[in-house]
Design brief:
alpha+beta; 7-stranded mixed beta sheet
Length: 230
């Protein structure tokens, strides 16, 4: 995911800020933070200039991920609700979650090909290739913070080029930056391509855990439940 192909730019990463799932965890973050990335033809410059104008892109990616996970009708997010709940560097004390957006770089005018150099499929350079949406959590056993990856999505036209690995590497580095010990997320059980991908880069299935959730009426009922005893 090096050869004699000409040096090329990496994709640009910009912070913008389910039922039947497997839980995954990176407890050894260095596995990913130190992992080399294959120099794809469209694969480096990281910028930290997110702003609220990215919200329509984030919402579109959320809808595309939900459609891929066969749950398109479950999305209730709107541009207004994302603006009210996401964190951006311009207002770091606001919101509950952060987003990384990844974009392909513009084609390098100095790039050349040879008979032995495969010609990459052209990619739209103004289109966001994917995103990672995450928030911080905490481990009592480790007495350390961590990161929970809520959504990771790479659009189909950009898959197989290392973009997903690049997003995960950025998150692993962010985990280390805050002194964290774990990067965790959940995967639908039927999503075999993603399960194989995550295990291939060193993630561990947390088979002994079962995810639990309250929402809607059950959440409202619990919030108003009378609790007797001491």
């Amino acid at each position: 995911m090096a050869s004699t192909t000409p040096a090329t730019q990496e994709p640009t990463i910009r912070p913008a800020t389910e039922e039947g799932t497997h839980r995954f965890s990176f407890s050894s973050i260095s596995v990913l933070t130190n992992a080399p990335l294959t120099p794809f033809p469209h694969a480096g410059l990281v910028t930290t200039n997110p702003n609220q104008t990215d919200i329509p892109t984030i919402l579109a990616l959320i809808h595309e991920l939900a459609a891929y996970e066969r749950a398109a009708s479950s999305v209730l997010a709107t541009e207004a609700s994302l603006l009210a709940t996401l964190t951006f560097p311009s207002n770091p004390s606001h919101g509950y979650a952060k987003t990384l957006l990844i974009f392909p770089p513009p084609p390098s005018p100095s790039s050349t090909t040879t008979p032995t150099t495969p010609t990459p499929t052209p990619l739209p350079t103004t289109t966001c290739a994917g995103m990672a949406l995450y928030f911080h959590n905490y481990s009592t056993w480790r007495a350390a913070p961590g990161i929970y990856l809520e959504d990771l999505f790479v659009r189909p036209a950009f898959r197989g080029r290392g973009y997903g690995t690049r997003l995960l590497r950025e998150l692993a580095r962010e985990t280390e930056k805050v002194g964290g010990k774990r990067l965790e997320w959940s995967v639908l059980k039927w999503n075999e391509p993603s399960l194989r991908f995550y295990e291939g880069i060193g993630a561990e299935r947390m088979e002994e855990w079962v995810g639990m959730r309250m929402e809607g009426e059950s959440l409202e009922g619990m919030a108003r439940r009378e609790v007797g005893g001491g």
